[in-house]
Write a structure and sequence with these properties.
The chain has 2 domains: 3-82 and 189-263, HAD superfamily/HAD-like (Rossmann fold, 3-Layer(aba) Sandwich); 87-186, Hypothetical Protein, Haloacid Dehalogenase-like Hydrolase, Chain: A, domain 2, CATH 3.30.1240. Helix 1 (20-30) runs parallel beside helix 10 (253-263). The protein is elongated and about 65 Å long. 37% of the residues lie in helices and 23% in strands. A hairpin with a 2-residue loop joins strand 9 (172-178) and strand 10 (181-186). By secondary structure, it is of the alpha/beta class. It contains 10 helices and 13 strands. The longest helix is centred in the middle third of the chain and has 14 residues, at 118-131.
């Protein structure tokens, strides 16, 4: 049995969607093999993908969710969820990110709360002074329940502020998942830990393991697997970590590799 572990956005998915060819190939693969989706998304946001691929029906695969914070095995329905941030940590991270001009999204178990950045506020004030347009109200009374991760994006001088952010939040996992998008998780949280658990649980041989990823949150997995691939559109850090490259997600690069795996 072969095991394919793939990131979603920017790797398996193009523009956040599954095409008919991808669905057909992955269903064929699951009939005799194991498919693992390793993503920064939570279960609610991957449920439609699980349904499209009929993963519950095949019961051979697994999910690595929220960049390793959660794990679900379809075979025995084992579910693992690690502790995330407490409220004090959330407020600390928001404060630091705000001062560095990032737009913050707090991802809770049942909702996403997006806050205006310092740049947004400056823009709205200038717009009010010049064009007299009203300043949007900020939700300062948001309640952060069961926070899973914190996402950052939309800052000016992104690379400069990203370096400062990593220094300020050295005791957290600060990962660049795409060119202008960052995710923050508790220290030690990553996809690789859950992948290693899966490998140990089912005694998966390295020769039967294939990993695909495009972001910094995939680097550890790409380095770990002998058969690891980064699509053409991946960040340079992911490309350097992978042992092989494939075509971009827009050209179904991952699916073309999986088709070759099926033929072997």
């Amino acid at each position: 049995m072969k095991t394919v572990v793939s990131d979603l956005d920017g790797t398996l998915l193009a523009d956040g969607s599954l095409n008919k060819e991808t669905i057909a190939v992955l269903k064929e693969f699951q009939s005799k093999n194991r498919l693992v989706l390793a993503t920064g998304r939570n279960f609610e946001s991957v449920k439609w993908i699980v349904d499209e691929l009929e993963m519950e029906k095949y019961q051979t695969g697994a999910l690595i969710l929220i960049n390793g914070l959660a794990f679900y095995d379809f075979k025995d329905r084992e579910y693992i969820y690690l502790n995330s941030f407490d409220l004090k940590e959330v407020k600390k991270i928001i404060k630091i990110a705000y001062r560095l001009f990032f737009r913050v999204t707090v991802v809770c178990q049942n909702e996403r709360i997006t806050l205006s950045s310092l740049y947004d506020k400056i823009f709205y004030i200038l717009r009010y002074l010049i064009k007299h347009k009203p300043i949007p109200k900020q939700n300062n009374k948001a309640v952060y329940n069961q926070v899973e991760k914190i996402e950052l994006g939309g800052t000016i001088f992104f690379n400069f502020f990203f370096k400062l952010l990593k220094k300020r939040l050295y005791n957290y996992e600060v990962v660049r998942v795409s060119q202008y998008w960052i995710e923050i998780l508790p220290k030690g949280t990553n996809k690789l830990n859950q992948l290693k658990y899966l490998v140990s649980k089912y005694h998966i041989d390295q020769n039967d393991l294939y990993v695909f990823g495009d972001g910094e949150n995939d680097i550890e997995m790409l380095q770990y697997a002998n058969n690891s691939y980064a699509p053409e559109n991946a960040l340079i850090e992911a490309k350097n970590a992978a042992h092989f490259k494939c075509e971009s997600c827009n050209n179904n690069g991952v699916i073309k590799v999986i088709q070759n795996i099926i033929k072997r």
